[in-house]
Design a protein that fits this description.
This protein is mainly α. It has one domain (2-142). The protein is built from five helices and three strands, in the order αββααβαα. The chain has helices at residues 2-20, 55-75, 81-104, 123-142, 144-176, and strands spanning 29-32, 36-43, 107-113. The chain has a three-stranded antiparallel beta sheet with strand order 1-2-3. The radius of gyration is 25 Å and the shape is elongated.
Length: 178
């Protein structure tokens, strides 16, 4: 549901941007002066305009990303809710930008930061970026599978340490008896 929400919200926001904003090269709309502007940019490439002319490749990669996420979530024995939400955000963003590529031949970007020189982006890009961070946090720190592995390793370390202590103690008691 998270991914569908991101893709839908992204498409609605882009449709409004295409109607309400002037084409690139003109003055955008100040949303929060000095911080956030809306500027209409049509991006033929991927992130930051890289890879122009590879629409089919990017659409294919989006499909592969969504399928890989689904397969991972279905086959992984234990996943954290953070992993699920993160991969849903990434998938929703990938689908949102893929819809643009198929329907318009370009991706509509409209969110511009005024306080730093940064490429114009969209809701799908936010979903992808935040989703990657959330999924990684979930996988690295919160995944039940990783937590179980860490607990097993801790138990093994404890058992190993206990047996080493017992060996040392038995050696010491053996020396005292001589």
């Amino acid at each position: 549901m998270v991914g569908v929400t991101v893709a839908c919200f992204d498409q609605i926001a882009k449709a409004v941007a295409r109607v309400a904003l002037s084409p690139a090269g003109t003055v955008g709309v100040q949303v929060i002066p000095g911080i956030l502007n809306f500027e209409l940019v049509y991006n033929e490439g991927a992130a930051f305009g890289l890879g122009e002319g590879y629409t089919l490749v990017f659409v294919t990669l989006a499909v592969i990303m969504v399928m890989a996420s689904l397969i991972y979530l279905l086959r992984a024995p234990l996943v954290s809710s953070w992993e699920v939400v993160g991969l849903a955000l990434v998938s929703g963003g990938a689908v949102g930008n893929a819809i643009d590529r198929v329907a318009h031949g370009v991706v509509t970007d409209f969110i511009a930061t005024a306080f730093i020189d940064f490429p114009v982006f969209n809701i799908a890009d936010i979903g992808i970026t935040v989703g990657v961070v959330v999924a990684l946090i979930g996988f690295i720190f919160l995944s039940p599978a990783n937590l179980a592995a860490r607990e097993r390793a801790e138990v093994e370390r404890t058992v190993h340490a206990d047996s080493a202590i017992r060996r040392r103690a038995s050696r010491k008691s053996g020396r005292k008896g001589r």
